[in-house]
Amino acid sequence: MTLAGRRGIALLIILLMATVWFPAPLARAASPTGTFQPDACMFELPAGAVEGRDLECGWLQVPERHAQPEGPVIRLAVAIVKSRASNRKPDPLVMLQGGPGGSTIDTYTRILFSPGSRLRDLIDRDIVLFDQRGALYSEPSLVCREQLELVERTIEQRLTYEESDRLSLDATAACHRRLKDEGIDLSAFNSIENAADVAALASALGYAQINLYGVSYGTLLAQHVMRDHPGMLRSVTLDAVVPTSVNYLLETPRSQNRAYTELFTACAADAGCRTAYPNLEQSLITTIERLNREPARVPITDNETGRTYNAVLDGDSFASVVFQIMYSSSFIPAVPRIIDDATRNDFRVLERVLPLIVFDRTFSLGMHYAVICAEDADFTPEDAPLQGVRPFIALDGRRSLEGYLERCNIWQVDQLAPVVDEPVSSDIPTLVLSGRFDPITPPEFGDVVARTLSRAYVYTFPDTGHGAVGSSACADTILKAFLDNPSQPPDSSCIAESAGPRFISPDTIIFTPITLALATLDVAGLAPFGAFVGALLLLLSAWIVWPLAWLFRLITGGKAPEPSPGATIARWLVVLTGAAGAAFVAITLINIVQMAVANDATIFYGLPRSLTLVALIWGMPALALAIVVCTALSWTRGWWSGIGRVYYALLSLSAIGCASALAWMGVFR
Fold first, then answer.
1. DSSP class of residue 190?
2. How does the average pLDDT of the chain come out, rounded?
3. Is residue 216 within 8 Å of 441, Cβ to Cβ?
């Protein structure tokens, strides 16, 4: 679930971007509503996925308002991930993304087809993904491109809170005007219509029963489905739970405060973290105060456009970024390191995370406001329980609540009936999952929902943030067991085996860009890594060529040139550089294997800075320069034969290529 946030970069994060294309206009139904129309996939396929074999796509036509089946229609983008199991079960897993406004298709195609994910293989049934009404790929999409344009205009400006809030409100109003001018009934984009879409989807695809999975807002939507359309549900999984009976907006400051307490407690209980970061909470507070007085500049690159911005980072923005980072189980181990680095104005690790947050063009802010303002905007900021909440969180919490009310006043959608706020009572088998460090939907929310579910199995994971499935091998295994037999509690023994987060120490070298790029088969990472491997293979050829040349001379009785100390040193430089390059490849592959074994797409794997081989990697530019010097000496002093000198010159070029490729990959940063 997203929240409205602070100023500066916080504005970028919370208001979350837009797209560059226009949504399709509404139309009258050319064919019956509630029908599925197969079509080519409307998104870029994940690496390795083949349409027809791995994925089938199409559109579900539904009424804009289900009570008016003859009225305007909308199209929901659908992607069916085909099971690879030989004994595929007939009842699929239908997944609901959070936000509201997140793209289910964008999120879960990346997770399910990630090299480190075993989720698809664990679940022996098809997985049905669809973008909810108003989300990225559905038509019309309520993505607000006006917010991204605002980000691009202001990211390098130092704005006061009042200035950024005014600009944000203007962008919100502009988005609202555009969507209304396109004839979109924004009041039709709510959880009740959304729940009816789920029922229509199951019917259109011919499923007698489905297994429903929801994360974050998806859990709230799943509860509406449980209340309004229970007959089709075989099982329900609620991951990072939002109760219907709790206004999560009012509880957000307290939830955030709890997550920070859990983080500080976990760090204090870990000997390495406690030693490395002995005053973590005070470091965070001091950094927020200092950056609010003297904002820092942080270079962040939009990977889609390639443009780098010298972004302003003030204290409120930094606090907002840390809050957003704690959503991700993969990022939690790095949070103490990020806070500690920031005390010295060192944002190199943060630089690698920020683009993933700031330049997200997949989030539908228009859908977010349509859903939230219809269901959860019935409050006043004074209703928020702020007693005992850390001051910087309480201040932002009040601002966020005021900001939601201002934006809902712009959005002007119809309020849903009071029944949507009542607890859902059901005997449908329900798996309830929570994360210890979840900053927005605490474990107690899962307990609240479970009280009125007679067949609920409730679990909290000690090392996860917001959403456990897909980021925890243990959670994936529990989900698999639950789907196999929803009538009995799944085996949850793996939870007790977790020791909590593996916090990153200050001395860890983090090979973020290349490891993540290779693990996700990103061309931007494959190109420099491929160049490095090509140059390295030529360099390592010396390990074969020189011994073979010696063996050939030994067999034929040829006489080797008289060795000189310089020539011997030159050869050892090549051997050492090759060893350093091989070490880098090994470290990178170890990182990727760690991801696969942990079933975790973390980008924070690394090795201790003190390792000799890591030191060699960072010394490769100097080694390459030394080899170039030796090449020049080999020609002036006549080392080896003419062919030997030419071959050594090629080796020097390969050493330069290796060092350049490492710089290209960002290793020396």
1. S
2. 88
3. yes
Instruction: Determine the distance from the C-alpha atom of residue 562 to the mean position of all C-alpha atoms in its chain, rounded to a whole number.
Output: 59
Query: What are residue 127's DSSP bridge partners?
Result: 81, 93
pLDDT band at 359 (very low <50, low <70, confident <90, very high): confident
- Please determine, for residue 520, whether its predicted confidence score (pLDDT) is greater than 90: no
pTM of the model: 0.81
Confidence at residue 191, expressed as pLDDT on a 0 to 100 scale: 98
Q: Residue 571: enclosing H or E segment and its boundaries?
A: helix 565-598
The span from the first CA to the last CA of the chain, in angstroms, equals 33
The pair of three-digit structure tokens given for residue 462, joined into one six-digit string? 């000690």
Q: By C-alpha distance, which of 588, 601, 613 is closest to 666?
A: 588
Is residue 486 within 8 Å of residue 429, measured between CB atoms? yes
- Measured CA to CA, the distance from residue 369 to residue 365 in angstroms comes to 6
Measured from the Cβ of residue 162, the count of other Cβ atoms closer than 10 Å reads 9
Pairing of strands 430-435, 233-239: parallel
DSSP states of 440-453 = SS-HHHHHHHHTTB
What is the β-pairing status of strands 210-215 and 89-96? parallel
* Overall average pLDDT of the 165-176 stretch: 97
**What pLDDT, on a 0 to 100 scale, did the predictor assign at position 523?**
55
CA distance 202 to 204: 6
Q: Does 221 have pLDDT greater than 90?
A: yes
DSSP label at residue 213: E
Question: What span, in angstroms and rounded, lies between the C-alpha atoms of 391 and 439?
Answer: 16
Q: What is the DSSP string of 339-387?
A: HHHHTTT--HHHHHHHHHHHT-----HHHHHHHHHHHT----GGGS--T
Structure tokens at 500: 């909590």
Query: Which tokens in the block code for residue 168?
Result: 């944000």
